Amino acid sequence: FVQAVVLASDCDPRWLTKHLPGLAASRNVPVVSVKDGKKGSSVRLGEVFDIKTAIAIGIKV
């Protein structure tokens, strides 16, 4: 099961991730939103996971 969801706040179009907070809440999974004004949060989130960009990451432990 997914333990947490990390979302990039600058996703465009927004509908790509709009449903994820509600879905996570229905399964009692916390959602963390990443913001980075300089590079863009999707670029920053991708860097954390060693990929080019990411709009959403599910963490499974």
UniProtKB/TrEMBL annotation:
Membrane spanning stretches: none
Domain Ribosomal protein eL8/eL30/eS12/Gadd45 residues, every copy: 3-56
Pfam families (alphabetical): Ribosomal_L7Ae (PF01248)
Top-level taxon: Eukaryota
Protein name in the entry: Ribosomal protein eL8/eL30/eS12/Gadd45 domain-containing protein
Protein species of origin: Genlisea aurea
